[in-house]
């Protein structure tokens, strides 16, 4: 072994071990759903403890509730579940925490606990079928807002003129800053332009966190009118901002466009305001780009400042997910082009006050995406992540692939995790690894799914296909991920037996997806492994033919 400067290498080793330890903790502490929700069934004792612990880890200043310290939460919540509030308060008193501090948390947990016990889902369904009125509740993440309980109700939207709420705007400053710092750390400077994805339900859940992040990146703040409606924005002075204003290209979902029409106007207004500020171009990338475009394309300021895009009126979704799932594509760039075809409709209002309501603006979107250096989406829930549904890759993956062709460089791709104790920004690759370890390859997760039989195998296969979606749109999946999927679900004989008994169709799709990953160049693996996969595929086909 080489004897390089021993102390440094010891320090380096310690730093590496510590980083590894932190990564392990991150995976261990990740809250994951252990199985599908069964309609009408209340949560189990174990699920309840996990959930209460997470709820207790959140500061809620508006309710006068402080979070329990991380190191004591587990014990205290177990004590609460087995012996009640008083016992839990006493046990924390012995650890030096006053009753005044801890009782409010347990009062909150009592309410949540009772509401978790009562499950109105079947009852509400039957009443709804009878045509009775079911009072809706707020839409939110259960941890962020336990008032969503009891379940078995529809979600009501929020007043779009209240978006972003003061709390969401305040919280978002740190997220926007961390995002920019992360990019700067990796690239030595701020990104000049970013592409953001905004969804409707997410902004209902968070009272507009995604919207607030976009406003912060632009360096603007919402302003309320005499009726307390957020109808306009003002610029945050550059010396207060302490960094350049970032150009943001926003793709909003069809649901967002429908639910948040005033917010679409607000975002468009913010871009146009910033474009017209008399500021140095190196501190205002919106103005820089708009002026460049006016000069190069001989277009007017109104056209050069279009940044809010969605589907044509009445249309929803990108269809990128369907194209990937059905393997109906030859070249990756087709996926990005499809994204733009579906989403190149501009919304806002021009300088003469004329509404732009879904005007086709393909050239404007192409130009705007060509400058993008980073793409980003806010993740605000513990329940649904990158590989649970195909919507993340259709949107964030779709826009990233569109940028790659137009900017002639793959953008840096980031996600936030605004529900953890500290704001966390991760790259897409980091998030895919974390999701894979915490869910797809985690026995707690897949055994939870397999309890549901046929549907559980379909869920496992879905996760692998959604992971594949991140290869197709962003080349963000490491080889080991596919290798471990094959080892865990197909090369373990007893596991393969279980899958083929429960659901040979999904087992077959899973094998095919892995072969597709190799065929399209996303999984570099020995021929012997592929041979084994083809054998399994053939035997599943024989089985399916026998069944049919
Ligand atoms: C939305 O809430 O905007 C949304 C929901 C599902 C898929 C995509 C977007
Ligand atoms: Mg690769």
SSE blueprint:
Layout: H1 6-29, H2 45-56, H3 70-83, H4 85-93, H5 99-117, H6 121-129, E1 137-138, E2 155-156, H7 166-187, E3 193-198, H8 200-205, H9 209-218, E4 220-224, E5 230-235, H10 238-241, E6 247-252, H11 254-259, H12 261-275, H13 285-297, H14 301-304, E7 308-310, H15 320-325, H16 332-343, E8 345-349, E9 355-360, H17 362-370, E10 374-379, H18 391-407, E11 412-417, E12 424-427, H19 428-440, H20 443-450, H21 454-474, H22 479-489, H23 493-502, H24 504-519, H25 527-547
Parallel strand pairs: 1-2, 3-6, 3-10, 6-7, 10-11
Antiparallel strand pairs: 4-5, 7-8, 8-9, 11-12
Helix pairs in contact: 2-3, 2-5, 3-4, 4-5, 7-9, 9-12, 16-18, 17-18, 18-21, 20-21, 21-24, 23-24, 24-25
Bound molecules: benzoic acid and magnesium ion.
